[in-house]
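Q: What does the assembled structure look like for these inputs?
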Amino acid sequence: AQSVTQPDIHITVSEGASLELRCNYSYGATPYLFWYVQSPGQGLQLLLKYFSGDTLVQGIKGFEAEFKRSQSSFNLRKPSVHWSDAAEYFCAVGARGNTDKLIFGTGTRLQVFP
Amino acid sequence: GAVVSQHPSRVICKSGTSVKIECRSLDFQATTMFWYRQFPKQSLMLMATSNEGSKATYEQGVEKDKFLINHASLTLSTLTVTSAHPEDSSFYICSARDRDRYLGFQETQYFGPGTRLLVL
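A:
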């Protein structure tokens, strides 16, 4: 069965510092991978996605993620965090050819200090 | 592009009443919409998949008679929580898949802003 693990429940960084949010997945083949961001009381906004090709994916708001098959990971990174990046971040996995059932991780809450 | 709206954004109701939540794709047609439920500090759990013109497919453990889903058009799906009870209080989020962008390998769900339901 597919599963997604986000090991870090809560991360705090200073504004301007670099950021890496971890995501590990369990799936029998190469899945579709997504990162979403959720601001308080809001729905989810797609940051980036990986379907195939280049394993380093660029997204919106200066985020990027790297798919590492050997580590079953899809970590999200940003070189310099802004205060407006404070939010909840969800990694999700979907089956190839059928992303009807996106499996979400439990999320990582990012707090940014000035 | 790819904007999904939900109405209402929040609703408070008395126990035993029914509440209807609308999910609309504003600038694209969605043959498939999804309904999720999110408990505080937890992840999203898929409740059901809504297909235009056909019955919804519910996930295991989701009561069909309590959570009625109707997908009457390519831009609108509704979730009705019938005879709501306090345990139904939650954040309900819908998403939609853009029919014209569904190419088998470009599938992306676009999410609405969510509806917070509080049942007293």
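Residues 48 and 104 of chain B are 20 Å apart (CA to CA).
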